[in-house]
Amino acid sequence: MKITLRIWRQHDREAAGRMVSYGVDGVSPDMSFLEMLDVLNEQLTAAGDDPVAFDNDCREGICGMCSLVINGIAHGPEGLTASCQLYMRHFSDGDTIDIEPWRSPSFPILKDLIVDRSAFDRIIQAGGYISSPTGAAPDAAAMLVPKKDADRAFDAAICIGCGACVAACPNGSAMLFTGAKATHLGALPQGQIERNSRSLAMVNQHDAEGFGGCTEIGECTAVCPVGIPLDMISRLNGDVLSALRHNTT
Amino acid sequence: MAELFTVGETIRDTKAPAGPIQDQWEARRFGAKLISPANRRSLSVIIVGTGLAGASAAATLGEAGYRVKSFCYQDSPRRAHSIAAQGGINAAKDYRNDGDSIRRLFYDTVKGGDYRSRESNVYRLAEVSSSIIDQCVAQGVPFARDYGGLLDTRSFGGVQVSRTFYARGQTGQQLLLGAYQALERQAAAGTVEVHTRHEMLDLIVIDGKTRGIVVRDMVTGALETHLADAVVLASGGYSNVYHLSTNAVGCNTTATWRAHRKGALFANPCFTQIHPTCIPVSGEHQSKLTLMSESLRNDGRIWVPKEAADGRRPGEIPDGERDYYLERQYPAFGNLVPRDVASRAAKNQCDAGRGAGPGGRGVYLDFADAIARLGRAAIEEKYGNLFDMYHKITDDDPYQVPMRIYPAVHYTMGGLWVDYDLESSIPGLFVIGEANFSDHGANRLGASALMQGLADGYFILPNTISDYFAKNAGTETTDASHPEAVKAVDAVRARITTFLTINGDRSVDSFHQELGSIVWEYCGMERNAEGLQRALGLIRALREEFWTNVKVTGTNEELNQTLERAGRVADFFELAELMCIDALHRLESCGSHFRTESQTDDGEALRDDAAFAYVAAWEFTGDNAPPILRKESLEYHNVELTQRSYK
User: Fold this and answer.
1) What is the pLDDT of residues A154-189, one digit of tens each?
2) Does A85 contact B393 at a Cβ distance shorter than 8 Å?
């Protein structure tokens, strides 16, 4: 297949960016989207041009590092798929594909398609944990956890922290990310003691990072590569209300 | 072979305390000097890598009150490749009452490693395994539960008890997020300083002690000196020397290799694990391979057509014309034989022309029987995410047609040599997790990597490093202007300048690909003297071409991914050579290291305990100079050495 790419190029944080067109030949349907970009970069290197910088690492959809807006959709056209797990068989010969970075004032662009997502780490720092220093744990079998609670926690805990929810949200909100962490830890008996204060602290940090408010549009869940559902935000809101009502800080 | 290396002094003291094996860890902990809580604040430690080992160590040392600096090359500590581990984590809890115990986990690990690991370390690993599960549950790791609310376990490749705890097919992710959250909690508390997008490029050794590292800020290109009272490497394994592996594409050996060049011994580099259940290569463009948890082998049956070059689709081949070769060859363990055995058996079937799919490099992993027996819903519950992943990559639906699998490089048992305290041969340099040569001998059992990473980070290192601090640290202060620090930074800068000025014709990736195919061909699933000699010649010639003809675009003072890769590939070249020398000198077969010259009549690995029951620890002597082989002899007082048999 022959594909035309229009890619956002930006030299560094301060530089102005623009879309640049490239042609890529010999694209096979079995290539992943990132392998297709590897081919482009080999081509650019051979010509002495600067290859396109993009974040990626595990290339199996679990590390959350890849972060491409493909034809206007975070992680591209296939549902439940991170950019690295998207295959070229979903495109056709002759297609033109736009590739852009996550767009959010809270995720500044570092170069080309790479953004700074350290705001997510700071939300976790604010409270996304159960305080449990090494050595103090009781025997793992001492506490039973109903299967449905463990499953609910797991369904939230699989968030890969990629930031697609923010990139897709018209408000630039990171409430799906934050809600997933609140639900993961809040669904478990171990997480009850800090539940309300945790949620409030994470939401405060979320706002301080400049992420927008949630108006439950649902674009976030539509692009989420692991299918975190919208009701996890409701869970977070419930915790925050409790925290405010009981003045938990 | 004589000109390839020389033999040096034997390593005699591993610092393991004397006495019965079950008392050694307690004795070491009691013997280790402590640092009082008030004094810990004045002691600093650098930790490179934020996977299970690095993140758990950083969190734990931060909680203890030390000043910790943590480094990773990714944009967040949560990205480290431990995140991709699927199957589970072993622990000798015996919740199933199926005969498990510390001693049995110890025994299984030593046997699984084909008697090339150190008894004292492995026993300790089994001993602390239970505490890891406790710790992770307390952090909120959502392990699988049964309907009574109890923790569920499953049985995993190579053992006959059910001791593997899991979180669906994402155990590594959930354990890493637990450690990551503990790490970020310490970052908020101010005890851990996290440096993301920073890559370690050299080690700083002053007066024989490890005092710091040189890192490159991967966004600005700035070279920074970071000093501390001790350095911990938790930088993972070196599978990417093969170019194609199941590791994340960024995984590399630079931190460990740079330390090796500064004097840390590198042990058993040829012990590399080939994982049997990976998705086969689909073409030239392939950038990485994807593993599917071997837990699939609990319910999937592996087979090939009986006839070579059978062109039919799998569904058209009747049962009588299929060879379930693992069940036939290994009736006691069947599809659950250890990884090295399963991998080589698949290679043998494909070599004989019975492989399936493009290029004949694949065998079937079939769930039809399991779906008929347990129902689709049960299979979905256990393996849903793996089936989805397979479907996404191959466009085949494994609920309908058998999966195709082929072995791929997955884990490296070799790594920097460490003693019982996990300290390398350079004082003050500790190595944990996959980066050390560890507890897995010549072959690692499934679900043991997560156990070892967390054992090292949560429970072992925090106890042993205090002894080093008490005896060594805080005596001299130093700063970035020390001649050794300046020398290290200058060397890093000079190397970067060289990369940027060669301006040749070939890309970094093309060199990496070619190097990988050489190592895979001659130092992969089977090795022999002739092939390894040939590989050494090829690697040296290619390395020479690399240093005269590589093309690295751009400058240092920017985000430059090509430059990052150039440094990693340059180090892979040197490591590949040492791997081949190590493989060449070990004339026996053991575990993952299969020498065609050393096999039993029925084609199984034939160990030579009289000649090779030792750890091969290699000392660096200079560029293009033969390394020195330092042997640590392996003595077994608690297990009897037997020829491994899974029949």
Assistant:
1) 999 999 999 999 999 999 999 999 999 999 999 999
2) yes
Q: Region A192-208: what's the mean pLDDT? A: 97
Contact call for A56 and B249, based on CB within 8 A: yes
pLDDT < 70 regions, chain B: 1-2, 157-158, 474-475
Please tell me the distance in Å from B170's CA to the nearest CA on chain A. Answer: 8
Predicted local confidence at residue B432, as pLDDT: 98
Q: What are the tens digits of pLDDT across the range A114-129?
A: 999 999 999 999 999 9
Provide the CATH number for the domain formed by A118-245 in this structure.
Answer: 1.10.1060.10
Identity of the residue in A49, A58, A140 whose CB atom sits nearest the CB atom of B248: A58
Taking an 8 Å cut-off on Cβ atoms, the answer to whether A185 and B288 are in contact is: no
Measure Cα distances from B554 to A48, A92, B49, B201, B550 in Å: 9, 33, 27, 19, 13
Please give the domain boundaries of chain B with CATH numbers for all domains: 50-274+411-472 (3.50.50.60), 276-409 (3.90.700.10), 483-632 (1.20.58.100)
In terms of CATH, what superfamily is A3-111? Beta-grasp domain (3.10.20.30)
**Residue ranges of domains in chain A:** 3-111, 118-245
**Beta strands per DSSP E along B544-595:** 550-551
> Left (φ > 0), alpha (ψ -120 to 50) or beta: where does B142 sit?
beta
Residues of A in contact with B144 (CB under 8 A): 150
Distances (CA, A) of B570 to B285, B542, B544, B573, B631: 22, 11, 10, 5, 27
Closest CA to B425 of B247, B215, B263: B263
State in Å, rounded, how far the first CA of chain A is from the last one.
57
Q: Give the per-residue pLDDT at B158.
A: 64
Q: What is the pLDDT of residue B159?
A: 81
Q: Is any Cβ of chain B less than 8 angstroms from the Cβ of A192?
A: no
Q: Do A129 and B60 touch (CB under 8 A)?
A: no
Which of B74, B93, B194 minimises the CB distance to A65?
A: B74
Catalytic (active site) residue B373? no
pLDDT of B53-96, one tens digit each?
999 999 999 999 999 999 999 999 999 999 999 889 999 999 99
Residue with tokens 């008697």: B115
The reply to whether A148 touches chain B by the CB within 8 Å rule is no
A134 vs B60, B510, B559: nearest CB: B60
Asked if the interface predicted TM-score (ipTM) of this complex is over 0.95, the answer is: yes
> For residue B553, which residues of chain A lie inside 8 Å, CB to CB?
44-45, 48-51
